[in-house]
């Protein structure tokens, strides 16, 4: 696909340009807004936001009118509300009932159960590979997911086996008659090109096992004693050692991890007595394909299949056959994912960055490309031609919304939300959003408000450092979705504040709460303006 502009210069100057635009834009005092109730302006006018800029648009889906408006046509950094755009395009492109199939092929002849050749797992871009699938076929998530464990206290693990899909594949291989593999086991990860520089913290990969993470849980024992270590998944790829100590209650929980040798992770630090839940820390795997290969070989052996090669080491991708050589008659196993709507729910509920970036890559693959950036063209075409979003008001560089170079207007976001309300599967899409005070990234936001349960919206948070003042800066905190108002109206809304200084994590959480308070005020009698 043609892209006239894609150079390092764009990446280098985009952030500076956006900062300049923000600095030159009107201040955005709520006094300049239209239809804002006092409960909303009281939050926006508080001292915390004296140097910040607010944007808001609410649209009544029953009356067809804009109601509250503030800087609605100005650019704002969207943070993770950008996931509405990437996941919206994927919802339209794949459909909510799409399933991903990950096959395993034998390469070589079979003699008395022995495969004289290689066993190849062909990665399909399945986000969870059975590692989150519940008995009813839905996908499990924790409100504070393990992907955020290193940045947000209180993250927990789900009970599902992260190796569930690989174990199913291994059992199928054995059931097909393969009892021994004399060749190698290989992961075919040629679905799309890897670009770790594009999304370094959450790079999309064709094969994903346990979100490409090692989970490490430190539980205090007695003051001065080593903390108890549990980690998962247990595979031949990695072992974990820990020197984490137990300290007195009230002391900070501080742990770090690093790969100290091939296949060996070291965890250091301290955990205080009484910490609840136990402290979860994660380490990103260095080579997802090699990690998956090791885990698959382990699963095959557990299923009773003898594999002659070592389970550790690199993935021998150089030995892969041509992509066109896989014959249906040589397929010995296949894992079929839950429906795509379950993945959308996971990504939006917990703001799953890897999943959002992977989605853009899958859009590119659907269009016949192995270049993930081509997925953004598919996204743009959907926004412009299908959802009728004013794309000149949308600037996005990835699926997750992790760049200061991303900007959108509240008007554009509400246009996208309005489009989904016209679809016959609107209820399913809406159900994938976090619910105020109930679940996902909104679970702990104003849970006691009467509005809890009536606001379904994607959150967005982008934080940076302010080394000069030894504090944090929030370039963006955002919320976008739907509100069932107290008088029976249904609103689509986009709410965002940019460039909020914060002295502590508590300040960051307060900004989160303040957006929840604004949403609750919009829900309430003074905010819901439509006629019943």
TrEMBL record:
The family annotation for this protein states:
Belongs to the peptidase S13 family.
Query: Which organism's genome codes for this protein?
Result: Humibacillus xanthopallidus
The source's superkingdom equals Bacteria
According to the record, the signal peptide region is 1-22
Q: Name the Gene Ontology biological process terms.
A: peptidoglycan metabolic process; proteolysis
Q: Per its UniProt record, what Pfam families does this chain match?
A: Peptidase_S13
| Name used for this protein in its record | D-alanyl-D-alanine carboxypeptidase/D-alanyl-D-alanine-endopeptidase (Penicillin-binding protein 4)
PANTHER family referenced in this protein's UniProt entry, alphabetically: D-ALANYL-D-ALANINE CARBOXYPEPTIDASE (PTHR30023), PENICILLIN-SENSITIVE CARBOXYPEPTIDASE A (PTHR30023:SF0)
One annotated GO molecular function: serine-type carboxypeptidase activity
